[in-house]
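User: Nitrogen fixation protein NifU. Structure?
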Amino acid sequence: MTTEELKINIEKALDEIRPFLQSDGGDISLISIEDEKLVKVQLHGACVGCSVNQMTLKSGVEMTIKKHAPQIEEVINVEA
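Assistant: Predicted structure:
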């Protein structure tokens, strides 16, 4: 898989999650992919400072990204 294909797959995963975040007044964007293993995202709106955002990040976002791009090992949130 090329870096571009990997990015496309990760964006597909984020598009799958985005409606759930937006329904709570939040959003997410892809910041970077490092060494084709680590994905950095940024949560926006109501997701920033939300007490469940780490759980959302690990159980929802990371799981969905790994489904689309199995080589990804970790997803981390970058604060604004």
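Helices lie at 3-23, 53-68. The longest helix spans residues 3-23.
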